[in-house]
Amino acid sequence: MTLDGTNTWVLAEPGSGAVAVVDPGPLDEQHLRAVISLVEERGARVTHTLLTHGHADHAEGAGRFAELTGTRVQAIGDGHDDLREGSVLHVGDLEVAVLATPGHTSDSVSFVLPADNTVLTGDTVLGRGTTVVAHPDGVLADYLASLRRLRSLTGSGAVTRILPGHGPTVDAADEAVAYYLRHRADRLDQVRAALAAGDTTADEVVERVYADVPREVWPAARLSVLAQIAYLPTSPDAAAVTDG
């Protein structure tokens, strides 16, 4: 589910003494201390601990990492220290713009690095494959809107590279986001067809629509199916589908 594992990103201007760390990852003391050692080897210190969202593979170790670095964990929210849509963080001279991209989860956020034409997407866009819309917290309508927001950046050339939460760096950013939008449209068509064929449970839809996907990822696919069914409230067949 995490491809090659969770990517922990270390962000800094060249030669800067200030560093932001995005998604410290699971509660793995060895990993957390390795990140700190990497920063210290640069003669720098961690000034910001940031989260793309609250799933444990990204955030479980964040509290401990903040304790080790004397920072506070910042994620999207309404609190005084929380991240907000449109705000800009200053990590030394590095600007990090906050872009709310809910859909995978309600608290998903991306970080835009204008100087590098780069965006960190967490699980909104992965380095390979596609992500799950984690129903009920994840909402497909929100996810599609977030993809369109990202497409407006990639389509204009403001963003040309994606640093994902899992998998390799994506250098063809616009092509990747366009593919994600097409993929979601295709999956919706497949779910509609499954409902029209008489499937009445989410599990039946998964068996039909995700037949070419390894069974170990079917539980995640089921969440996406439920999110797609919720997105199709006007369909009479969708209304008959249950969680069973």
Automatic annotation (TrEMBL):
Task: Please state the span of the N-terminal signal peptide per the UniProt entry.
Answer: none
Tell me where on the tree of life, at the top rank, the source sits: Bacteria
InterPro entries recorded for this chain?
A: LACTB2_WH, Metallo-B-lactamas, RibonucZ/Hydroxyglut_hydro, Sec-metab_biosynth-thioest, WH-like_DNA-bd_sf
Instruction: Cite the Metallo-beta-lactamase domain residue spans from the record.
Output: 5-166
- SUPFAM superfamilies, sorted: Metallo-hydrolase/oxidoreductase
Designated name of the protein: MBL fold metallo-hydrolase
Q: Give the species this sequence originates from.
A: Arsenicicoccus bolidensis
